[in-house]
Amino acid sequence: MKKTTGTDRSITRNWRPATQAVRGGTWRSEHGETSEALFLTSGYTYDDAQTVADRFAGEAQGMTYSRLQNPTVAMLEERIALMEGAEACRAQASGMAAMTTALLCQLSAGDHVVGARAAFGSCRWLLDHLLPRFGIETTVVDSADNAAWEAAIRPNTKVFFFETPANPTLDVVDLKHVCSLAKSRGIVTVVDNAFATSALQRPMDFGADVVAYSATKLMDGQGRVLAGAICGSQEWVDEVLLPFQRNTGPNISPFNAWVVHKGLETLGLRAHRQSENAVALGKFIEPRVPRMLHPGLESHPRHSLAMEQMTATGPVFAFDVESREKAFAILDALELADISNNIGDARTLMCHPASTTHAGMTDEEREAMGVTQGLLRINVGLEDIEDLKEDLGQALEAAGF
């Protein structure tokens, strides 16, 4: 493999984000292909025994096994790290593999984690059920209450874990405040940035230590593959993350890595256009529904903060129509948008979180985080905004709004 200027950090770190998204992390074989090659291999061969011995001893560069390195996966990791402003990245098999790995790689029995109350259902499951099984204490707080983060700190607190904007209630965390607080206490911040990606928000610019992703979402952008990623400092990735990943194996397949790698080329274009569509559709819907949860609209309690932290507020928002029956009536009346629990897709998708993404939580847990039976979450796609308005307008009318 020939490493091109796309992998020379002395060059690529000076490129602007749009260029990094297209050119960063580009390796070429002796054939000189323009599109990155797909390496479907589990293992590698060596010219002699000493070469493989040196590689396994960490004394020589090169591939040893695709659970540890793969050229296609490595290209994806380099590109994500460049776009994130991170020193290093390791790709994962899925978004939840990334969240689980980012936490377990650095926690032990007796440690304590503070997490945001509003979160994806599986992320809350990690806090509420998985970590306690291993003797790791957890506390959930209202992420919008800056004082609550400090009040929850214990002598054994090791990690702050949160999403911003949060799934599905679009809570916005004050990144600068929470990350600064964590650093002052020696606590590692792990931020789930899947709703925004580096195209719209870079948590490390505000002091975050670790940024984790479901690359299944906006990074792929077309609902094709499962993927995840974890970004951090080179030291943290090499000394904390990599030993866990090497020995537990939550690895992404080369094919899925290649798909996401190509998706990154258009991430900025898609993320900003979908954000524009989401704001326009949110403004159209807001006068007709009882409650709107959209950080891109002035009605959101943390709208100003969102605009300070993000270049655009993303494709996802939610609104509440008071009852499960009304929510289902809207979904059933859709003619253009699809009923689906995925997000980040170029297509407009809607779901009922209480019966899908957060179905595994108790009624009390959902109520505490604001996931009501009438809440609907929408991922706004790249369709013509007038067609989306017409579809949502007729669906709302059919449901009595």
* Number of structural domains: 2
Top-tier CATH class of the largest domain:
Alpha Beta
- Low-confidence regions: none
Rounded mean pLDDT is 96
Helix content: 25-40%
Radius of gyration (Å): 21 Å
Characterization of this structure:
The structure is a single chain. It contains 15 helices and 14 strands. Helix 2 runs antiparallel to helix 4 and helix 11 packs parallel to helix 15 (385-398). It has helices at 9-12, 17-23, 49-56, 71-84, 95-104, 121-133, 146-151, 175-184, 234-248, 254-263, 267-285, 303-309, 324-333, 363-369, 385-398; strands spanning 2-3, 27-28, 88-92, 112-116, 137-141, 157-163, 188-192, 210-214, 228-232, 291-293, 316-320, 338-339, 349-351, 375-379. It has two domains: 2-266, Aspartate Aminotransferase, domain 2 (3-Layer(aba) Sandwich), CATH 3.40.640.10; 268-398, Aspartate Aminotransferase, domain 1, CATH 3.90.1150.10. It has 401 residues and is α/β, with parallel strands linked by helices. The chain starts with a strand and ends with a helix. The strands form three sheets. A seven-stranded mixed beta sheet has the order 3-9-8-7-6-4-5, with helices on both faces.
Can you give keywords for this protein?
401 residues, globular, alpha/beta, single chain, 15 helices, 2 domains, Aspartate Aminotransferase, domain 1, 5-stranded mixed beta sheet, Aspartate Aminotransferase, domain 2, 15% strand, 14 strands
